[in-house]
Design goal:
The chain is α+β, with helices and mostly antiparallel strands. A hairpin with a 4-residue loop joins strand 1 and strand 2. The chain has one domain. The protein is 68% helix and 6% strand. The protein is elongated, with a radius of gyration of 25 Å.
Length: 305
């Protein structure tokens, strides 16, 4: 239900921080529920009979060899599928981490040679006529801005853009995007992860705008966004201008939100949503734990020894 409900929820647009938390609560609940299913196989639950118990008992007994060679093969096949899914996630994670590390390392070396640190900006400046600003993710996150941005943007616009990038760094948005990107690459056919990736990419940009405009005029960031988006559309972006960029996300949506900001959520509404999000994130873990504290909440009788 999450791809349909969260993607179109008005409160997510009004409170991107809660929207980010909601998407990660959904993803976390999925993994906790999957882990709970594995626990249910390893540690038999107690209490009344139910149709699902027949399937559970058959799987465990087949794996033990109670139904002969065919049953054991079927049970082991299910186990191998689960193991393959876990291995796929780990292997994809290792490859993604290594590739990102190599790419970011090369970019940092390029910046060390071609860039110059400007203390009064708190950023690294690179010579490039295209106006752009972005964050180099990883350890010691770097905010980078091009000479084209400094030449074409006014001082207040530059300050707003840099505040946007610092908001990305402070919010660890690169880690949020890397996590959901890993899941999407490991399980590309799961629509939940694909939609979560697209929505989180959108929401981190809106959230960075929200943080930046707490200290800078909305019109300054809006003008800078238009200038950089226009330049990016007119020319092919340089491969060096990669990362969590100031023109990321849906530029039209961001511009509309900057010029006509939505009404903030009422405190009671925001607190209620935060409570629901927290409950969603921990509900599977609580339910699994509850079956061990109170066995009557479980579904299946113990297997014969």
């Amino acid at each position: 239900m999450a791809p349909r409900l969260l993607a179109n929820a008005g409160w997510v647009y009004r409170s991107p921080r809660l929207g980010i938390a909601a998407w990660y609560a959904v993803v976390g609940a999925v993994f906790t529920a999957a882990a709970g299913a594995l626990v249910a196989v390893v540690a038999p639950w107690q209490a009344a009979d139910a149709p699902i118990c027949a399937v559970w008992r058959w799987c465990v007994q087949a794996t033990r060899g109670d139904f002969g060679v065919i049953g054991r093969i079927a049970g082991m096949a299910a186990f191998v599928v689960g193991l393959a899914m876990a291995a796929r996630l780990v292997i994809t994670g290792v490859r993604l981490t290594r590739a990102a590390s190599v790419r970011r390392g090369a970019h940092r070396r390029m910046l060390a040679v071609a860039g110059r640190t400007v203390p009064e900006l708190g950023a690294t400046v690179v010579e490039n006529p295209q106006p752009a600003a972005y964050l180099v993710a990883g350890t010691g996150r770097l905010v980078v801005i091009t000479s084209g941005a400094l030449d074409q943007l006014r001082a207040d616009e530059v300050a707003a853009v840099l505040a946007h990038e610092r908001a990305h760094a402070a919010g660890r948005h690169d880690l949020l995007l890397d996590g959901v990107r890993l899941l999407n690459l490991a399980f590309p056919r799961m629509s939940l992860f694909a939609v979560a990736r697209a929505q989180l990419t959108r929401l981190v940009e809106i959230r960075a705008d929200e943080v930046a405009t707490q200290q800078h005029a909305r019109i300054s960031l809006a003008r800078a966004l238009v200038a950089m988006a226009t330049a990016s559309a007119a020319t092919r972006p340089s491969p060096a201008l990669a990362g969590v960029a100031a023109v990321g996300g849906d530029a039209a949506e961001r511009l509309h939100r900057l010029l006509t900001p939505p009404a903030p959520l009422a405190r009671a509404h925001a607190m209620a949503l935060a409570g629901v999000i927290a409950a969603l994130a921990i509900a599977p873990a609580i339910l699994v734990a509850a079956t061990f504290v109170h066995p009557v909440l479980g579904m299946c009788p113990p297997l014969p020894t």
